[in-house]
User: Fold this.
Amino acid sequence: MIRLLDAGAFLHAIDREGDTAFHVACLKGHYDAAMTLKERGASLVTRNLKNMTPLHCAARGGNPKIVQELLGSSECDTQDDRGMTPLMHTFLQKHEGAAVVLLEAGVRHDIAAFDGMTALHLAAHFSERGVKALLDKKAQSVADRERMIPLHIAALSGEEAIVDLLLPISDVNAQECMGLTPLSTALVEKKEACALKLLVANARFDLVSNKKVTPLHIAARQGLKKAVEDLLERGADPLAKDEDGVLPITQARDKEIKDRLADAIALKRNQATLEEI
Assistant:
């Protein structure tokens, strides 16, 4: 590369994606190449066809050293064509080290992408360290365009430690656009341990989705025995019907769950009979 530059290669040439050699070096995490290009005068603010700067690419590449070198002379909070900042890209690509470098440099964590997602949404997928760092910076739980909050994301990913971190700043009963709470989301994804943790945190078991589906319907359908038991012990209604008139027991395929629900139905009907006498 140095020989090409010395021979007069055009430093700012772009490929069909609009990337310069500097964009590519940053994306690939090639520190020496990136620093050579920077020293030769590569632009830190040129955008490719996705409206990404070299810092966006460095964030996606995940080399903390490159990210650190670009901080002083780059627009750290600029958004690409999806509204994503460099910080968001570090979490999207699961580069915790690069994310921490950006956070320690004071980049904004409260910017939302065009779909409403924030850095906290993206970190909640996998990064306990990242979520801790964001919470230390006073990041807030907000809903995206689908009305999902970061707790929904942690629940569907089965990240119990992250669920614990997010509970103090979250509405545990927030419902996204289909009416699913974090509890229902965890059950849909068969993240039973997260579901049980949310129940302990007083997640409501009686909130239904837009189609009148209860958490008990979901737990029965997904074969989650512990969740079915916990829901019934907390008072979930085994006779609740969804919009099609279907009971949780009809959703169950596991014999043990069917038997447990049958017992719960019999008990509820017996109690109703006694109350009528």
Remarks:
- Residues 146 and 177 are 5 Å apart (CA to CA).
